[in-house]
Design brief:
Layout (H helix, E strand, L loop, with lengths): L3 E3 L2 E4 L4 E6 L10 E6 L6 E6 L5 E3 L10 E6 L4 E6 L8 E7 L10 E6 L1
Parallel strand pairs: 2-10
Antiparallel strand pairs: 1-3, 3-8, 4-5, 4-9, 5-6, 7-8, 9-10
């Protein structure tokens, strides 16, 4: 199974984007899910996580996203979301979703480009 994130695009600094990722199978509701991002030449980094019960966490290393990003999920729709506000140029990356630990193929991700 290859996950496909969507909702990326080109936005000016300070703007917002809403990403979504649909996950097939009933196992979704039992899995902790995460949003990751990767820029060329760097390792993929974890941005935010959400447990099956809805508890969230944001990676300290991901350039202070906690105050700007919100991860959520809809278990009835098998979908995980990432609302991104006050975007900065350094948020430019390809964004992916996956379980934690990862269990599905990464897919192509969705490109987020923030212009200054």
């Amino acid at each position: 199974v290859q996950l496909q994130a969507s909702g990326g695009g080109l936005v000016q600094a300070g703007g917002s984007l809403s990403l979504s990722c649909a996950v097939p199978g009933r196992i979704f509701r039992f899995k902790t899910m995460g949003w990751y991002r990767q820029v060329p030449g760097k390792e993929r980094e974890l941005v935010a996580t959400i447990t099956s019960g809805g508890s969230t966490n944001y990676a300290d290393s991901a350039d202070s996203v906690k105050a700007r990003f919100t991860i959520s999920r809809d278990n009835a729709k098998n979908t995980v979301y990432l609302q991104m506000n006050s975007l900065k140029p350094e948020d430019t990356a390809v964004y992916y979703c996956n379980a934690i630990p990862t269990m599905w193929s990464w897919g192509r991700g969705t490109q987020v480009t923030v212009s200054s």
